[in-house]
User: Fold this.
Amino acid sequence: MKKLLSLSLLLALFMGCNQKEETKVTPPDPDHKWWKESIIYQIYPRSFKDTDGDGVGDLKGIIEKLDYIKSLGVTAVWLNPIYSSPNDDNGYDVSDYRNIMDDFGTMEDFDLMLKGMHERDIKLVMDVVVNHSSDEHEWFKQSRSSRDNPYRDYYHWWPAEKGKPNYRYSLFDEKGDAWRYDSLTDSYYLHYFSVKQPDLNWENPKVRQEVYDIMKFWAEKGVDGFRLDAFQFAAKDTTFPAFPDGLDKNFTQYYAMQDGLHQYLNEMHTEVFSKYDVMSVAEGAGRNFTEAHELVDADRNELNMAYAFDGVDIPKREGYSLDHFKEVFSKWDSAFAKKGWLSIFLSNHDQARLVSRYGNDSEAFRAPSTKMLNTFILSMRGTPYCYYGDELGMTNIGFDSISQYKDIAAINGYKKVLNQGGDIETYMKDLKFGSRDNGRTPMQWDASENAGFTTGIPWLPVNDNKSSINVASEKENPHSVLNHFKKMTALRTAEKTLVYGAYELVQKEHPQVYAYTRTMEDTKLLVILNFTEEVANFNLPEGTTLGDTMINNYEEVQLAQNSITLLPYQALIYKIEN
Ligand code: GLC
Assistant:
């Protein structure tokens, strides 16, 4: 799912929220939790490491790389779905929630992987995809077979004799229509995503119980957390009334956070989260700050944290404004300064590459700008999520032809634009910049033909820049993006001020620099990030005495008495003397 809310709607909501800029530093959160202190590394298993030469990553590959993962200084792994799946949407269409996808290996591999993680003090967060299943799940096969099958109510069906159901938008359908007619029972079924991802009916208590049982199955195995995929869409008005006229792209307000969702989460908390030491995170954080709090405030017994899309919505092909970037992150921080907890991320498997979207992937600036962005993610308040390959500064592959894409969203989106007579040239340009396939190319382990990812033919091509951007060479170079990433994880782990300390924006209006302080008890850190490819002059706030340099992504720093001249994309963290 790309996003729940359009940018303009979000801005309107921000204004409505009337968030004033915080001038006072709020006290740090005293409520220590492992998941607040975690640094989460997201692995897209298809693309991480293949050990059997079929061109698709597998669990044995992850096992082989556990020491590498540990060496990064991360403390938890979030794995995209690894369950049995026909792979219409690369595993986000599950056909058996208690089995491992053939491409990825066996349950024995899973058990060994989990053991290997735990031996290294790495926690595991599993993706739970239960807004929908695959149409090849036994539940759906049964459900579709006859109107009186006991599984009929596991999904949303609309009998054709009632006429065509009111329009519902589908994110991945080539016509954009979320209802699919099924002649077998002369009815339509609902699919907010692809036609092979029918939506489960959460009003049915049996469905809910099935899901809790599945989650308990994995919790019993010892997994440490769950990421709830597209879960804000789970509750639905099952009368399916007509959308009001002119709804346009704001259809999501009728999809996200509908009545019933909080009860479902509450029930899930009672049935699962309260019984195990697991963390819970949902994709999407509601339609405004109030809803975000309703999802995550501890006293509500729902989730530990959610992740909002505003940050990943910022970059556009034409660029983005640093002002807007600062505004988004500062507002979310201030809304959660006293209560609740946030996730911090700039990339994942639904986005193109970090450096190509927010930084500068040219030869000259790729390394400093990636280091700067990783400094940002790892120095903000909230739990950081770091996507595989971003620790190296992997870049967009930038396909030109639709035949190169593998992602259903890209392919069906293309068909939809053609069907609707839209502007295909603009679509292709946007795709080249923003496609999810950009963020899914194989991990670059070394400079060999397939970057050490596979001995076979990789399911998605390896980026040509593997010869210079890869683990083997970056490991040896003390100034590499990889080694900078490790410095940042070490600093965050050692310095809890970066986890819990209050955040305060410094020199809000600076056109090139994003600077902020993180303060807890006697410790104050100043983070200074040049977001541009130009040199930037930064005057130190009055009365600031710089102490130790904790982080510098260059070997030098041009320091005058009260100012710093930052090199392009320079990232600095100082201790401030009191
Ligand atoms: C979420 C996932 C995305 C998937 C969609 C449907 O948004 O992050 O990858 O395509 O849900 O499951």
